[in-house]
# Entry
Amino acid sequence: MPRLGHAVILLGPPGAGKGTQAQRIAERYHLPHLSTGDMLRDNIQRDTELGRIAKPLMERGELVPDDIVIRMVEDRIAQPDCRNGFVFDGFPRTLAQADDLERICEKYKFGVTFVLHMVVDKDLLMRRLTGRRICKAGGHIYNVYDRPPKQEGICDLDGSELIHRPDDTERVISERLAAYERQTRPLADYYRARKQLSPVDAMAGADDVTSSIAKILDGVEAPR
Ligand code: AP5
# Structure
């Protein structure tokens, strides 16, 4: 490894562990971790035009319009560090985004898109998301119930402040889960029909989930 030229997608509901696993896969296979949620939050923080459109939608737990997200993703994929492939966390999220990703991968001559379907019981998600804390500097992910930092509110790895994402409230989480069911879950059938979907048991502990994913990705053929 690394397998050159693959687009790896983590598909799963909010709280499935996409971000947690994407960070690990990116590190293991030396691929960039592309999180559309992080890109949008960065635009909000910089108060860009895109950020001003995205902010109220994200606060309500709704998806940002496809054309905005697709443009943002295509700009990112065109960067030289994506030449050998990348790991998507939170994209695609609609059938239109999946179709566009196929077009973009053809344009940039990426190999087969590889989709890891993080399968998890819905009842776990509220607890995972309300308990999540994220490091302000490096985006390292903690959980006050299951993976607390050594010192409350401080990242073990870089000492920066841990924050609670504003959309991790019960009300907004419910909206995000509903949006997933309505708009994103159909992608599992879309990729299954293309024989690109690999199910992953995302109920297991994070280290076991990483091992399952590595077993799948280590068996992937590099594109010719
Ligand atoms: P985004 O930032 O993508 O959020 P999300 O999809 O809701 O996913 P999360 O980041 O909440 O969860 P995750 O699966 O990454 O879980 P994590 O690893 O952190 O999107 C936010 C918003 O942006 C959307 O609502 C939308 O408005 C907009 N947006 C983004 N992309 C878009 C797109 N493509 N199109 C349109 N709009 C878009 O883990 C969660 C918690 O669980 C952590 O505390 C972690 O420590 C814990 N945990 C993880 N794995 C395990 C495990 N195996 N066992 C126990 N605990 C675990």
Summary: The mean pLDDT is 93. Strands lie at 6-11, 33-35, 85-89, 113-119, 132-135, 141-143, 162-163, 197-201. The radius of gyration is 17 Å.
